[in-house]
Write a structure and sequence with these properties.
Order of helices and strands: HHEHEHEHHEHEEEHHEEEHEHHH
Helix content: 25-40%
Oligomer: single chain
Strand content: 15-25%
CATH class of the largest domain: Alpha Beta
Bound molecules: S-adenosylmethionine
Strand order of the largest sheet: 2-1-3-4-7-5
Number of domains: 2
Largest sheet: 6 strands, mixed
Shape: globular
CATH architecture of the largest domain: 3-Layer(aba) Sandwich
Radius of gyration: 21 Å
């Protein structure tokens, strides 16, 4: 199969389509692609009503919620046939909510032992590849990294499509070499058609500035339109809890010093203190993190976000049950993928990839 990656791979570029002529793209983009795609997919769904997927590095299931939303919008059923996460607390939360216990360390799972599936989902940790000596392909170049595990599973199982997520910095990591290696492996070595884009949760109706790269791939050629018409928007005021336990409030001294140093233009606002101690505030949160969010973000300069608020900032439904400590729940929420961002991408992409 021919590799399909353009050499001028710029995920921030507004024009990042490589297949189909410019004219075809203009005609296509003048229609509501989401509706077209749904109709096309629903016709195909008569042939294929169920999409089997695997949820790698599943965390607390942000990708899974997104997939379920996309499947529901497309009128198909989805079935998760395998999930994996090494973190026992994340696995506990996942099991409590999806009633399936994820397998642990993916590096210990033989690819042949994974059931057949159509779609691979993975928000994988970003790691440098230590490339040494003669490179004999991804098995030498990426071994020991978690991308290697994604690649070996794709190679063995040949699913129709995948959606990968990572931090925006993946594109500049190790001078861009990490990202170029990933794209080359997916296209040239594994033969997938690939596209990617850096997206921001703020553009998907969530009051959180969180930029993530989404990498989509399919066995067949496709042309993705990355412009989304997002109608459902949630304000910060809407998702803040009304009754908040005292334990979430900062000490009087902290509140006093913050308020002496900063005056917010809006309320509610999330006050953000950077490493040098300078404070800014916005009617949205800056990116939640797995570790530090607890201390560096304060609602109106007074209190930390609750775990539920953090989950809402990632687009998780309130049905999501929190069964771990506040510390673990915050870490899990900080690690998650913004659900609507992934859902919009999948709703658009799956019809292009799975027919
Ligand atoms: C960025 S988070 C993904 C979060 C997920 N997308 C969500 O919405 O919750 C990466 C996850 O990879 C998991 N992980 C790291 N190393 C792993 C390994 N060797 N095997 C399985 N999971 C691993 C971490 O525990 C973490 O939950």
């Amino acid at each position: 199969m021919s590799a399909a990656l353009s050499k001028s791979c710029d995920p921030d570029s507004a024009v990042f389509c490589r297949w189909g002529s410019h004219a075809a793209e203009m005609i296509r983009s003048s229609f509501d692609v989401r509706i077209d795609s749904m109709e096309q997919f629903n016709q195909g769904a008569e042939k294929k009503k169920e999409v089997r997927f695997i949820d790698l590095f599943c965390g607390i299931g942000g990708f899974r919620y997104a997939a379920m939303d996309a499947f529901a919008a497309l009128g198909v059923t989805g079935r998760c046939v395998f999930s994996s996460d090494i973190d026992k607390f994340a696995a506990k939360s996942y099991e409590a909510n999806f009633h399936e216990a994820p397998v642990g360390d993916i590096t210990k799972v033989r690819e042949g032992d994974i059931p057949d599936f159509d779609l691979l989902l993975a928000g994988f940790p970003c790691q440098a590849f230590s490339i040494c000596g003669l490179q004999k392909g991804f098995e030498d170049e990426t071994r020991g990294t978690l991308f290697f595990d994604i690649a070996r599973i794709l190679k063995e199982k040949r699913p129709a499509a995948f959606v990968l997520e990572n931090v925006k910095n993946l594109t500049s990591h190790d001078g861009g070499r990490t990202f170029q290696t990933i794209l080359r492996v997916l296209t040239e070595e594994l033969g997938y058609f690939v596209d990617c884009r850096v997206l921001n949760a703020l553009d998907f109706g969530l009051p959180q500035k969180r930029e993530r790269i989404l990498i989509i791939g399919a066995k067949k050629a496709f042309s993705m339109d990355w412009a989304f018409d997002v109608r459902e928007k949630r304000s910060l005021a809407e998702l803040l809890e009304k009754q908040v336990d005292r334990k979430h409030y900062a000490s009087e001294e902290i509140v006093k010093s913050r308020k002496a140093a900063h005056t917010a233009k809006t309320s509610p606002a999330i006050w953000h203190e950077n490493k040098s101690g300078s404070i800014s505030s916005y009617p949205y949160s800056c990116a939640l993190r797995a570790k530090a969010s607890y201390n560096y973000l304060l609602v109106d300069g007074e209190r930390r976000l609750t775990p539920r608020e953090m989950l809402r900032l990632q687009g998780f439904p309130d049905e999501f049950q929190i069964t771990v400590s506040d510390t673990q729940a915050r870490k899990q929420a900080g690690n998650a993928i913004p659900v609507p961002m992934a859902a919009y991408v999948m709703e658009r992409f799956l019809p292009l990839a799975l027919l």
